[in-house]
Design brief:
This protein has helices spanning about 20-30, 75-85, 100-105, 120-130, 130-140, 155-165, 205-215; strands at about 5-15, 40-45, 60-65, 90, 110-120, 145-150, 170-175, 180-185, 200, 225-230, 240-250, 255-265, 275-290, 295-305, 315. The chain has seven helices and 15 strands. The chain has an eight-stranded mixed beta sheet with strand order 3-2-4-1-5-6-7-8, with helices on both faces. Strands 10-11-12-14-13 form a five-stranded mixed barrel. The protein folds into two domains: about 5-185, P-loop containing nucleotide triphosphate hydrolases (Rossmann fold), CATH 3.40.50; about 200-315, Nucleic acid-binding proteins (OB fold (Dihydrolipoamide Acetyltransferase, E2P), Beta Barrel), CATH 2.40.50.140. It has about 325 residues and is of the alpha/beta class.
Length: about 325
């Protein structure tokens, strides 16, 4: 049996009254996008604004609605695709549902081509304060976040920091009354000097450094870094190897994880388990049995016992 063809998915996320429906409606009215391809429009929440199919640029847009999370299953999505003979899918996603629910339900041949998030600038900061996990969930993978109803009394930096705490790659747009749009141009220089002979990673910068190194490993190949970290000894590790790292909170207490790195040193026996070190090490990306794949391997150049940082859990902002 031949493999199913790839199904493009255009994903729109955000909370109620954020402008998703309006944007999707306008997109489907545009002949450049709505050019005759059979389109499944999957609506996972219903706000005050409703779709006007009679204004779509072409026929061939088929609306299906899911009202409950339990309805979002692979079987349901496959049935919708068969019924409509869809060639692509547009999803208006419920902001109160976690994205993993969708990703786990998507048929294997469904591929997210674009992901946008929409937010009402007037309520976004409150959402972030009260439902940070849901906000982070929508920001972490979107290509563009649009802050609707933005006005001059608002400080762009308040929004910029929240987005950058989730992703350094997401584009940010601020839409004012009347439809005028400004794109975020706030620079985000790294808080450490990658050209220094020894790159000093401040206590407050561990999370940012760890993520940046994971996203752009080539920048760090062969670099020497100095940082404060927790050291762990484990019997299953190869000889001369221990683990260093810090706990990192991405969005909330529930998602705190230990961001660990393999460290090699011929004096590993002198390292006390679960202690804090002031570590200077060289970074190389190579295979290591502890990872089971290629990854950042630190070669310890020096290590001295030290006190934990004032905030032992690292954050992004």
């Amino acid at each position: 049996m031949s493999e199913k063809r790839e199904m493009p998915v255009y994903l729109f996320t955000g909370f109620l009254e954020a402008g998703k429906t309006k944007f999707i409606q306008e997109t489907l009215e545009d002949k450049r996008f709505c050019n005759g391809e059979r389109t499944l429009l999957l609506v996972c929440e219903e706000g005050e604004e409703e779709y006007a199919p009679d204004q779509f640029a072409r026929d061939g847009v088929y609306i299906r609605t899911l009202e409950e999370q339990e309805e979002l299953t692979t079987e349901t999505l496959e049935r919708f695709a068969r019924e409509t003979r869809a060639e692509r899918v547009v999803i208006e996603y419920n902001g109160m549902w976690m994205l993993d629910l969708l990703y786990n339900a998507m048929p294997q041949n469904w591929m997210v081509y674009q992901e946008f998030m929409f937010a009402d600038a007037g309520t976004f900061l409150n959402y972030n304060n009260n439902m940070r996990q849901l906000v982070y969930d929508k920001l972490k993978s979107c290509e563009l976040v649009v802050f609707n109803r933005f006005d001059r009394s608002m400080d762009k930096m308040d929004f910029h920091k929240i987005v950058r705490g989730a992703s350094r790659r997401t584009d940010i747009a601020y839409e004012y009354a009347g439809g005028r749009v400004e794109y975020d141009d706030i620079e985000d220089p790294l808080p450490f000097d990658l050209e220094a002979p020894v790159v000093e990673i401040g206590d407050e910068d561990y999370a940012l450094w760890y993520r940046d190194m994971s996203e752009e490993p080539k920048k760090y190949e062969g670099k020497t870094v100095r940082l404060k970290c927790r050291a762990l000894r484990r019997s299953k590790l190869p000889s001369g190897t221990f683990v260093v790292g810090r706990h990192v909170m991405t969005c909330c207490v529930q998602d705190i994880q230990f961001a660990a790195l393999v460290c090699q040193w011929d004096k590993t026996d002198s390292v006390q388990d679960d202690s804090w070190l002031d570590l200077t090490a060289r970074i190389n990306f190579k295979y290591n049995r502890a990872y089971g794949k290629r990854g950042p391997v630190l070669t310890c150049l020096s290590a001295q016992p030290t006190q934990p940082p004032a905030q032992d859990v690292a954050t992004f902002y």
